[in-house]
Amino acid sequence: MEITGTVRRRTAERKRAALERLVAERDVWVSTSHPDHGPHQVPLWFLWDGRAVWMCTGAASATARNVREEPRVRLALPDTFDVVLLQGEAECFPDQEVPEDAAEAFADKFGWDPRVEEGSFLYVRVAPRTVRAWRGEPELHGRVIMRDGTWLE
C-alpha cells in the first residue's frame, strides 16, 4: 500500500507531536525479553511524567519477571502509520515503594490505584534513551528524535 500526500516534518515538529501523544495516549506496547523465556510483548496503560513513562503490572507477571532480569525495553504507541518508539531501561518499584507523586498521577489518569488492590503490583519507570518517530516512508530518514537521552532539534 502506498501512502501519498505525506509531508516530511522537521525534527522539532516530530518531537512536539511525539510529546503530545505521550501525554494524551492511554496504551503502550511493552516489549521485554528474558534470557530463559525469550521475548514478550503486552499492552499496558501508561503515564508520561515529562521525563519518563510509568506503567504498572502484576508483580508476578511475565513483564515484571523480564524487566527484573533484563531491564532493557522497547515501547511503542499503538499506531503503525504515526510511529513513536521508545527504548530505555526499566526501573522497578514495588507498589508500596513507588514515589507518591508518580502513583497519584497514575491513579488520577486511570481512576485505578494498584496500591489499594489485593495482590502485589510493580510500577515500571522507563526514561527513554532513544526515541524514533515517523509518519510513512518520507520520514524514515531522520526518524531518531532522541539520542542518548537528549532530544534532538
From TrEMBL:
Gene3D superfamilies: Electron Transport, Fmn-binding Protein, Chain A (2.30.110.10). The keyword Transport does not apply. Residues 22-134 form the Pyridoxamine 5'-phosphate oxidase N-terminal domain. GO terms for molecular function: coenzyme F420 binding; oxidoreductase activity, acting on the CH-CH group of donors. This is Pyridoxamine 5'-phosphate oxidase. Coiled coil: none annotated. Keywords: Oxidoreductase. InterPro entries: F420H2_bilvrd_red/Heme_oxyg, Pyridox_Oxase_N, Split_barrel_FMN-bd. GO terms for cellular component: cytosol. It comes from Streptomyces caelestis. The lineage of its organism: Bacteria, Bacillati, Actinomycetota, Actinomycetes, Kitasatosporales. The keyword Nucleus does not apply.
